[in-house]
Amino acid sequence: MCAVVGIFDSKEAAKVAYYALFAMQHRGQEATGISTSNGSSIKTVKRRGLVTDVFDEEAFKLLQGAMAVGHNRYSTAGSASVLDAQPVTASYQLGEISIVHNGNLVNKNEVRSRLIEEGAIFQSSMDTENIIHLIARSQQERLQDRIVEALEAIKGAYSLLILSRHKMFAIRDRYGVRPLSLGKLPDGGYIVASETCAFDLVGAEFVRDIRPGEMVIFEEGKKAPRSVQLFEPDPRICAFEYIYFARPDSIIEGKNVYQVRQRMGRALAKESASKADLVIPVPDSGVAAALGYAKESGIPFEMAIVRNHYVGRTFIEPTQKMRDLKVKLKLSPMRSVLEGKSVVVIDDSIVRGTTSKQIVRLLKSVGVKEVHLKIAAPPIKHPCRYGIDTPSYEELISANHTEEEVCEYVGADSLSFLSIEALIESIGDKQRYSLVSFDGNYFIQ
Ligand code: AMP
Predict the structure, then answer these.
(1) Distance 335 CA to ligand 1 centre (A)
(2) Can you give the C-alpha Rg of the chain in angstroms?
(3) Would you state the pLDDT for residue 191?
(4) Which of 104, 321, 355, 418 has most ligand 1 atoms within 8 Å of CB, for mutation?
(5) DSSP conformational letter for 22
(6) For ligand 1, atom 3, which residue shows the shortest CA distance?
(7) What b/e readout covers 386-411, taking b as 16+ CB neighbours within 10 angstroms?
(8) Strand partners, 103
(9) Which residues are catalytic?
(10) Where are the beta strands (DSSP E) in 214-273?
């Protein structure tokens, strides 16, 4: 979860960052922020709320300079404080820095305890603050070396952008769990962003993905960025980016997310065919996979569930009571299309089972005869510790129940999931992926 963006050597860096964050709003809606450097100081605006609510003309008057970093924060239960908004900034021996981070550190608590013992004072619950403390306390002379020392002390998933008064650093962990791409702006500057959909909005040209374990350094006065391979790459991009997180028009590691999702739908049709009158997606998350399923099976596709776009994602409200209500506010099935029909319903994933149960109930309430629920992902059996907000084992329905039990719980006539093998094949590479939610292989310990 979360989106990061960095802008280098562009006239209106803050505005470009703003549009990029707007394009990546789906990656986090709780809080947003931008820091800019004008070469002599760093300024920051950050607040809870959506991109369009937080930044106004006054904010842009403050956010001057040709360099910027920005962040959209995804909500996790219980951390609603503005102190948990990013960028995280600090003044230290060498000046000011500002950091944005997408990912999750697995040794956060050890590092934090050690830093506190050594006298550090923390302002937030964010693991990003660990990184800034480690940089500030390093004895190295150059910022670049301080960053490297800090990174050597942390373990986990991170796509990071660090802004100083004269430089910007873009870094991806050696596994490349979270995406990060480099683009060229129309005015000759550079953009680094979590997803390429941000490039499309600001007219940037895709250059390449930042490599796992790589640090790209942008320096004032030097046009071309420098690359340093800090850690040996062991690529394992998160499969969930393709399943659910990323916007369909983004290209991650050379693969268009929409096309990957269609292949998942096709694979689902091959693995688990059902006789039905219609294929219908759960909008928006199941649309591409449902199209793939319909093409492969020959069963007609209908957008028979209408989504109200003015309600946030179901996950935003952490309490169970609100989640149930939100599903109903969000999705509405059309009786005239559905009554008396047998339908294949496609969604991207089952986490707690709340959404699926509601959908089946809604469909039956408008007279659907049979609901064959098909999920374009394998069962989620393990919590992700590398940056996706999956709940604990107790709450993950597939961690505690067989597929038959889940089917019974959600009230469907049949339930199928995509196999892990078909998922990998649909993404379409021989390379390895982060599949922890499905196989429990916690490769960063
Ligand atoms: P649930 O109702 O708990 O089973 O949630 C399942 C739905 O939440 C799926 O249909 C997805 O569209 C969506 N979803 C899956 N993973 C996440 C996530 N990490 N954050 C927010 N929404 C998610």
Answers:
(1) 25
(2) 22
(3) 98
(4) 355
(5) H
(6) 352
(7) bbbbbbeeeebbbbeeeeeebbebbb
(8) 158
(9) 2
(10) 214-219, 226-229, 237-238, 251-252, 255-256
What residue ranges define each of the domains in the chain, with the CATH number in brackets?
Answer: 3-234 (3.60.20.10), 257-430 (3.40.50.2020)
The rounded Å distance from CA 43 to ligand 1 centre is 35
The letter for the amino acid at 23 is A
Q: Which of 30, 243, 315, 395 to mutate to test the pocket of ligand 1 (most atoms within 8 A of CB)?
A: 315
Q: How remote is the CA of residue 289 from the centroid of ligand 1, in Å?
A: 15
342 is annotated as contributing to ligand binding: no
Distance 354 CA to ligand 1 centre (A): 9
Cα(263)–Cα(266) distance, integer angstroms = 5
Above 70 in pLDDT, residue 315?
Answer: no
Q: For the segment 371-398, what is each residue's pLDDT rounded down to a tens digit?
A: 999 999 999 999 998 888 788 999 999 9
Tell whether residue 285 is among the known ligand binding residues: yes
CA dihedral 427, 429, 432, 435 (to 10 degrees): 10
- The protein residue whose alpha carbon is closest to atom 19 in ligand 1 is 389
Distance (Å, rounded) from C-alpha 160 to C-alpha 168? 10
Q: Is the pLDDT of residue 210 over 90?
A: yes
Most confident of 11-15, 91-95, 105-109, 325-329: 11-15
The pLDDT of 47-51, averaged and rounded, is 94
Pocket of ligand 1 (CB under 6 A): 244, 285, 313-315, 347-356, 388-390
Q: Is 348 annotated as a binding residue?
A: yes
pTM of the model: 0.94
The pLDDT assigned to 123 comes to 86
| pLDDT at 305 (0 to 100) | 97
